[in-house]
Amino acid sequence: MSQATVTEVINGVNVDRLGGMIRTVQENPNLGTFQFRAKNRWMTGAHNSSTIQGFYGAGQEYETRKKPFVLDSDEPPVLLGTDQGPNPYEFVLHALAAGLTTSLVYHAAVRGIHLESVESTLEGDLDVQGFLGLSDKVRRGYKEIRVRFAIKSNATAEQLDELIRFSPVFDMMTNPVPVSIQIDKQ
Question: What predicted TM-score, i.e. pTM, was given to this entire model?
Answer without folding.
Answer: 0.91
